[in-house]
Write a structure and sequence with these properties.
The protein has 6 helices and no strands. By secondary structure, it is an all-alpha fold. The chain has one domain.
């Protein structure tokens, strides 16, 4: 009898350790996504509309680059906002990629895991951007734009492509180093 209760106790300990490990992995994967989502939600309020951000940004630009900036400020502010869309959602997509990369750990092939994580990150960014622009339709000083959704998604695709190429290059270099180390004679073979 004592043996079966000890087996059960061991099973419970192993199971709780496994669940705890999974929970830590999920938190490590998705807490950064949650933090970025909260940042985007805060940025999507009426406080960050064009009418409220233009003047402070113009003063900062004039302090750095001089008063000549004011002549072309409308164009500069437009380009700043669109660059912010592109880069911000591109970075958000990378955070999503990290979450999916961790969550998809058990997948068989590294390339398959990578492609799935990139695809899901781009889809998640598209959905987040769509929700953001839809939400802005209901704010008095902002408006939703499908063009911004496409720009956000393009930022996600561009950052995803850069990350994909970097990951492929790193993997290729690792494989080359492994092959080179297999071809070198070991110290024992060289001494013989």
């Amino acid at each position: 009898m004592a043996s079966s209760s000890m087996d059960f106790g061991s099973y419970v300990t192993q199971t709780s350790a496994r669940v705890s490990g999974r929970l830590q992995t999920q938190c490590r994967a998705w807490l950064p996504v949650l933090a970025c989502t909260m940042l985007f939600a805060m940025e999507s309020t009426a406080c960050f509309g064009t009418d409220r951000t233009s003047a402070p940004l113009q003063r900062a630009a004039e302090a750095i680059f001089g008063y000549g900036v004011g002549v072309h400020w409308n164009l500069i502010h437009y380009l700043l906002r669109k660059t912010g869309h592109f880069m911000g959602c591109g970075m958000f997509s990378l955070v999503f990629f990290r979450g999916f990369w961790i969550a998809l750990e058990p997948t068989a092939s590294r390339l398959t895991r990578q492609l799935r994580a990139h695809g899901l990150a781009i889809l998640a960014t598209f959905l987040m951007a769509s929700a953001d622009e839809f939400h802005q339709c209901f704010l008095p000083n902002r408006f939703g734009s499908f063009n911004d959704v496409m720009l956000d998604t393009l930022g996600a695709v561009a950052m995803g492509l850069v990350l994909f190429l970097v990951m492929q290059a790193v993997e290729y270099r690792r494989q080359v180093r492994e092959r080179a180390s297999c071809l070198k004679p070991t110290c024992a073979e060289a001494a013989a």
